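Long-time lurker. I teach an intro course on protein structure, and each term I like to show students one example going from raw sequence to a predicted 3D structure in token notation. This year I'd like something fresh instead of my usual example. Would anyone be willing to generate the tokens for the chain below so I can use it in lecture? Attribution to the forum is fine with me.
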Amino acid sequence: MASWGERLAGVRGVLLDISGVLYDGSEDGGVPIPGSVEAVARLKQSQLKVRFCTNESQKSRGDLVLLLRRHGFDISESDVTAPAPAASLILKERGLRPHLLVQDGVLSEFDQIDTSNPNCVVIADAGESFSYQNMNKAFRVLMELESPVLISLGKGRYYKENSGLMLDVGAYMKALEYACGIEAEVVGKPSPEYFQSALKEMGVEAHEAIMIGDDIVGDVGGAQRCGMRALQVRTGKFRPSDERHPDVKADGYVDNLAEAVDLLLQHADK
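-- Reply from a regular --
Happy to contribute to a lecture. Here you go:
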């Protein structure tokens, strides 16, 4: 593999995943990953542009930012690209009225959206709300539509909390795709539109940006398909087998965000 200097040369913008990179969540708010608060501060004090890119769909963007600030992170809502606000814009632009299968914590993102007489389904990481009854209701809404539209806020397989690995929205999205014979529209990682939106907000080109995440497929693979470089941290949902993934190979593997920032500040923008 090329030297770190070659792999990181010319980087001007850094996209950071949140869950599993900055902190590990839990019902009581979770805990920062050691060194991550200081690493973010160092990045924001540097010449590099920084954007936080998350598939978090259990909390509103505002609630997520408040949580991260309580943990000591220097972050504001304008720094964050998240799927729920993006989905809300899509619904408005296309005149879609969703049946929402989401956590109560993210409902505020859809306050301005008409949900009467649904003509689509929006699914997110609904946690305990992924009951048979609720999944079946979403299935019935889709099956009653002449042209069913299923919008998923991400397609992750699993994520990590302090208590262990947690099944993510992608598994439930796939169940509805299979049952209804349709393909979901994914808003969030790894969709190209998600990454392109983040790059536009940062004001950098794909070849000038690097993604740092814990998901070999959603973070690393998604970013690389858009022309970015990507590092995988060995925190969060990382599994040793990720370094032998048959289809995706990160541009580098680091123990944590602190190590990634050390390397970036040494070699990037050269």
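Some talking points for your students: The two ends are 19 Å apart (CA to CA). The chain has a mean pLDDT of 95.
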